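User: Sequence in, structure out. Go.
Assistant: Echoing your sequence, followed by the C-alpha cells.
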Amino acid sequence: MLQTFTLTTATLKEDSDLMNPRNSNTGFTIIELIVVIALLGIIATIVVPNLDNFSPRYKLRSAARTVGQTVAWARSLGGGIGREYVIRYRLEEDTIEILLPPEEDEDPNMDFDSRESLGAETLPNGVEITRIVQPDGSRDDYGVVDLVLDKYGSSGSHIAILKNEDDQSIAVYFQAILGTTDYLAGEDAEFPQW
C-alpha cells in the first residue's frame, strides 16, 4: 500500500515558522526583562532597610549609624556655610536633632531653644541614648544636651553611648577637628588621653 502526501503551501509555511526563531512566541522580550529587574530593585529598596528592625543588635547598629550621620551632616553644613550649628540630644526621648544658626537679621547669640530645628531623628524602639561624654570628662546621663559645632569644625567632639534592650551598647565617637565618626563597643568608652 502506497501512501501519498500532498504538500501544500500552508504546510510548508507552518514548518518554516517552527524553524525560524524570530517567529517563536516563547521567551522574554528585553522590555519584559527590564521591567522585572526594576520591580525586584524597588522591592529590595523597601525590604532591605527594614531588616535592621528584626534583631536588637541590628537596631542598635542602625541607631548608631543614624547618630553618626546626623552629626557628620551638621558638621558639613557648618563648614560649608561658615556658621555654627548645634546638635541637640534629648536623652529621655532618645532623639537627636540639628538646630540651625540664627538668620542674618537675627541676634547671633540667640538662645538654642529659640532656634529652628531640622526635625528630630527618633531612634528605633528598644534603643536608648544612655550617656553623652564630652572631652573634658563630663558626662550627661539625662536631660537635654546641646553641643555646638562651630564654623571652623574645632568644637563639638563627644561620645554618644547607645544601648538596646539586650544591654548591648555602642559608643559613637565624633572627633570634630578631623570630622570623623568611630563606632566603639561598650558603654565605658572614654576620650583618648594623650
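User: And one key feature?
Assistant: The first helix runs from residue 9 to 19.
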